[in-house]
Each structure stands twice: as structure tokens, then as C-alpha cells.
Design goal:
The chain is α/β, with parallel strands linked by helices and 376 residues long. The chain has 16 helices and 13 strands. Helix content is 47%, strand content 15%. It has a seven-stranded parallel sheet with strand order 3-2-1-4-5-6-7, with helices on both faces. Strands 10-9-8-11-12-13 form a six-stranded parallel sheet, with helices on both faces. 48% of the residues are buried.
């Protein structure tokens, strides 16, 4: 059996694909399927080490990006996409998969074109509250569609669309608080703030955290995932800022948090601060953790902002618009929440009610059924 997975241009697409791939492996073993080949087709591998570890074959498929603003790259990317479609058609013709799992986005477009031409069944997944252009188009011919937010179901045919949530890696939600305290040397009897800047980190969030860092560490442990490109500078500045602080050991920065560390920290943290990508929101919801969301100001179709307000409306989080992300406002919101035990408990309940555990397993089952049917 061969399943092609398309997308993965960002962590928000890549990690759900990994979650589904793992669920497929588990299901194949349970069903005693002798061979399962998983292929990721995208314009870039995102994380080659994880692909190798998960035994997912990577096939590079050139894809041009359609920007929602004027850029000369829009013209050159037309030819890039055209070439990518031709290359993908040839590749898939020679190595025909039994089903396609697509996350949408420009990186999945060539594979979806090929799937439609060769009549390969497509399972489409939409992470965000407002679907992107590729998924809206692919929804017309996809055999099955899963959405993370109820609001996005309105954009797809009702009879083949289901609300399943976002696929989450099990290791991210299964953790141990004692292990987090040991690995990160967290001080006990004080609250812990987990700050996540997204898969690439956020300079804006980093700068704001550093501006209030002395005040934060006076009362809290701070775990700060600041991004691999920003880590060295952020860590250096933090050392200077906290040079004379007796609470310096309460601050812990990291370029990236592995899924095991995330799982452990989710059990030890009292509050999460995060961007508002669908992957981040559904992981925080699965943790049952109160949060402050800071949506990216220039995300495609403003999807982070729309994701955030839907989640906030459920009562599970507070929001700070990026334009309002000033040090004094940030510190005020953090302290206001952490001092309000009743509000924090309400947020925990709302987050757990919003969470949808098991999306990866449900998608894997449907994909497997589609692939088996097509292979007959």
C-alpha cells in the first residue's frame, strides 16, 4: 500500500502530517498490512531528520506561491508551478499511490492536480477557520474532508465533511511534570509560564519578553522557545538583562522544544503564551492549559487572527493583537490571569471542551479504507 501526503511547507502542516503518518503505521501493524509506503511531496522537506526517523520518503515537487499582494515573484512562480505540475504528473504516473492525504497550501497544489487527473482518491484536511484557496478548490473533488474548526465546514460540501480537529502527535500531549522539573530545573512552589513563538520563533514576542524579563522571573519560572534563528541573540540579551538578578535561574530559553519536552512542560506549566496557528491552538487545548494568544499580524488570509478569536470566544484563552503587544500590556495580562484562579479554572475547562483528541487516528482509518478500496 502506498499513501502520498502533500503539503508541509510549514510546521503547521508538517507536524499534523507526521501525526497521521504515525497513526497509519500503527494501524497497518494492527491490520497486518505487510508493506506501507508513505511519501511526502512538497517543495521542501521542512525537517529531514524527522522524515528519516519516521521512514517517510520525501519527493521534491516545485511549487510557486500565490501571494495576496503585488510581487514580481507571482509572475515567475506561475512558471515554477507549471513545471512542478508536469514533474509531479510524471512522478505519480510512474509511482501511483493508492490515496492522497493533503493539507492544502501552495506546496500541495501540484500533487492535488495530479490526483484529480489520475482519479486517485483524496482525503483533504483543513486546519484553519478560514480555508485557503487550494483547499477550497480541492474540496470540490476530494472524496473526504476533515476540518479542525466548525466554521470552516461552511466552505465545503456538507455530505463529505466532518469536524475532527487537528492531528496531534501523541508525545506532545503525554508528559510528566516531574520530568519537566528535572530537565529544566524548575523552581517548585511558583507558577510556570510556557512561551511559544511558533515553529520559526517570533522576534516581536522575544523582544517583548526580554523587556519584562526581570519582572517575570521575580514571580515565575519562564520557559521561552525563541526560535533557532533568534536563539543566540535572545539568550545573550537575556544573560545581560538578568546579570544582577537573583532569580536568573528561573529563565530557560530554547531554540526549539522537542515533542517530549513539550509534553512534559505541558504538565508543569500554568499558562501558555503562543502564536495562533491551528496546530498550536489544538495542542494547547489538548493540554487543558489557559493561554494568551498573539496572532501573527501578516498570516495568509489573516487566518491566525480568525483562529484566535474563535478559540477566545469559547472562553479558553485571552488575546493580545500584535499591534497592541507592548511590554506593560503583556505583563499586565499575564499577571491578571495568573492571579485569577477562578478564571484560570474556567479556561482549563473551556480548553478541554474545545480539544478533539484522536483526529490522527480517525483520519488514518479513513485513509486506509480509501487506499484499500482503490487498490482492489
Amino acid at each position: 500500500m502506498k499513501i502520498l501526503m502533500a503539503g508541509g511547507g510549514s510546521g503547521g502542516h508538517f507536524y499534523p502530517i507526521v501525526a497521521v503518518a504515525r497513526a497509519l503505521r500503527e494501524l497497518a501493524e494492527k491490520e497486518r498490512i505487510a508493506r506501507l509506503d508513505l511519501i511526502l511531496m512538497s517543495d521542501a522537506p521542512y525537517d529531514e531528520s524527522i522524515l528519516k526517523q519516521e521512514e517517510i520518503i520525501f519527493e521534491k515537487s516545485p511549487a510557486g506561491k500565490l501571494r495576496r499582494y503585488f510581487s514580481f515573484k507571482n509572475f515567475s512562480d506561475i512558471f515554477k508551478t507549471f513545471f512542478g505540475i508536469l514533474w509531479t504528473l510524471g512522478k505519480i504516473f510512474l509511482d501511483m499511490p493508492d490515496a492522497v492525504f493533503a493539507k492544502g497550501g501552495y506546496a500541495s497544489f501540484p500533487a492535488l492536480v495530479a490526483a484529480r487527473i489520475f482519479r486517485i482518491p483524496v482525503f483533504l484536511h483543513e486546519s484553519d477557520a478560514i480555508p485557503g484557496l487550494v483547499n477550497r478548490w480541492a474540496g470540490k473533488f476530494a472524496e473526504k474532508i476533515a476540518v479542525s474548526f466548525q466554521e470552516s465546514a461552511l466552505y465545503f460540501p456538507k455530505e463529505k465533511t466532518a469536524l475532527l480537529g487537528n492531528p496531534i502527535r501523541k508525545r506532545v500531549i503525554n508528559g510528566n511534570a516531574d520530568e519537566a522539573h528535572r530537565v529544566f530545573d524548575l523552581e517548585k512552589n511558583i507558577k510556570t509560564i510556557l512561551i511559544l513563538g511558533g515553529s520559526q520563533g517570533s522576534q516581536k514576542i522575544n523582544d517583548t519578553v526580554l523587556a519584562i524579563l526581570p519582572s517575570l522571573v521575580e514571580n515565575y519560572n519562564v520557559i521561552h522557545q525563541c526560535g533557532k534563528f533568534n536563539y543566540e541573540e535572545t539568550s545573550r540579551r537575556a544573560r545581560v538583562i538578568l546579570n544582577d538578578s537573583s532569580f536568573a535561574k528561573r529563565y530557560h530559553s530554547a531554540p526549539f522544544l522537542a515533542e517530549g519536552d513539550l509534553g512534559n512542560l505541558s504538565k508543569a506549566a500554568d499558562l501558555a503564551v503562543s502564536r495562533a496557528g491551528a496546530g498550536a491552538i489544538f495542542e494547547i487545548a489538548a493540554w487543558g492549559l489557559p493561554s494568551i494568544l498573539i496572532p501573527l499580524n501578516n498570516s495568509a488570509a489573516n487566518h491566525q487572527r480568525k483562529n484566535a478569536y474563535i478559540y477566545v470566544k469559547r472562553g479558553a484563552a485571552a488575546i493580545i493583537e500584535e499591534k497592541n503587544l507592548k511590554p506593560h500590556i503583556f505583563l499586565f495580562e499575564i499577571e491578571k490571569l495568573l492571579r485569577d484562579e477562578k478564571k484560570m479554572e474556567e479556561m482549563k475547562i473551556a480548553a478541554r471542551n474545545f480539544a478533539k483528541i484522536g483526529a490522527a487516528e480517525k483520519i488514518a482509518r479513513e485513509l486506509m479504507n480509501m487506499a484499500l478500496k482503490h487498490a482492489q
